[in-house]
Write a structure and sequence with these properties.
Arc Repressor Mutant, subunit A, Rossmann fold, 2 domains, two-stranded antiparallel sheet, EC 2.1.1.33
Length: about 350
């Protein structure tokens, strides 16, 4: 046995356990508004923060100390400060780097632990709708900042001729729309176009309708419960899949339905978690996060549906190209990318 190697691994385990404990503390801070109360990036005592938030000062001191020990906050003479950079990630929901919503997704993994144990011992199936409710709200809040930052400014312009169509008035389908974050963002940017969001999870469809109504888009963005293989309509100029195709049991069937529903000159926008084509190329922090999430969410959801292809969150561009080629598409390319997403375009 290599004792140095053992010690290095034990250090990693302790670090990971501390990180997991900090995610729980992050959820507490997010739900109680503690980060927002410190978003001015000024030093504050636990007692002052308690007055601002109505929370217990002694517990706040422990919570703040955990953040200082983790490098999330600065400490000086009994006072604590959330630096501007950390505030962008933890306190400012409109920030493109806001990630606190992701901690809520992680919370759902622990809530659903027993369900995953049953899936592991059985057929591998755990349907999206059977997750803890915080999975749905956390997923929206985790992905929405990236959509706000990149979708209209970068991803849509990277597609061939799509922005001009949207400005003139296009028909768009958003498949697996969830709470409608991506649909609403596009509808707000392109008022001449019509947007139709489809999701098989009825509670998410209801939330999406409310989001559109709140944004004054009820007549421009419509939502309905439907699967990726049977949503209604044809003649779409653009069909979008935002971080959902790999979760589907039959992604080839979904892509084939899109092929039939598109105009001849239409486009598919496929946004998927960033991945290289081979496991050894994904042994990095992003791959670690997405493989771990895929174990609980993406792959068991696929296995719960017909076909159960089980692409997983790290399918990679080459495997996704195969899916769309099998569905009949002749053109497939990487249009853009971020550290967290591949942005792919498919055409007939």
């Amino acid at each position: 046995m290599d004792e140095a190697k053992l010690n290095d691994f034990m250090g990693k385990l302790v670090s990971d356990m501390g990180g997991a404990a900090m995610l729980a503390n992050m959820i507490v801070g997010e739900e109680l508004g503690l980060y927002r109360a410190m978003a001015d990036s000024l030093f504050v005592s636990p007692e002052t923060l308690a007055t601002r938030t109505g929370c217990n000062a002694r517990l706040l001191r422990e919570w703040l100390s955990a953040h200082a020990a983790s490098g999330y906050m600065e400490h000086q003479d009994g006072q604590f400060r959330l630096p501007e950079e950390q505030a962008l990630a933890l306190a400012v929901e409109d920030s493109p780097v806001y990630v606190a919503g992701g901690a809520v997704v992680v919370a759902a993994l622990f809530h659903d632990k027993d369900k995953l144990l049953a899936a592991m011992r059985g057929d591998g199936a755990l349907a999206w709708g059977d997750h803890h409710p915080c999975m749905f709200s956390g997923t929206e809040r985790f992905f929405r900042p990236g959509y706000r930052a990149h979708l209209v400014a970068e991803w849509l312009p990277a597609l061939e001729g799509v922005v001009d169509k949207l400005r003139a008035g296009a028909k768009v389908a958003d498949i697996g729309c969830g709470h409608g974050a991506s649909t609403v963002i596009m509808a707000q940017a392109f008022p001449a176009s019509r947007f139709f969001g489809f999701d098989y999870h009825a509670p998410s469809v209801a939330t999406a309708r409310q989001r559109a109504a709140d944004a004054g888009l009820a007549g421009q963005a419509e939502f309905a419960q439907a699967s990726a293989k049977n949503y209604p309509g044809d003649g779409y100029d653009l069909i979008c899949y935002f971080d959902c195709l790999h979760d589907m049991g039959d992604p080839v069937g979904a892509a084939r339905h899109s092929f039939q529903a598109l105009k001849d000159d239409g486009s598919v926008l496929l946004v998927e978690p960033f991945a290289n084509d081979h496991l050894d190329q994904n042994l990095n922090p992003v791959g670690r996060l997405f493989y771990a999430a895929s174990t609980f969410i993406c792959t068991p959801n696929s296995l719960s549906q017909e076909v159960g292809l089980g692409l997983g969150a790290q399918a990679g561009e080459a495997r996704l190209r195969e899916v769309f080629g099998e569905a009949g598409f002749s053109q497939f390319r990487r249009a853009a990318q971020t550290p967290f997403n591949l942005i792919l375009e498919a055409r007939k």
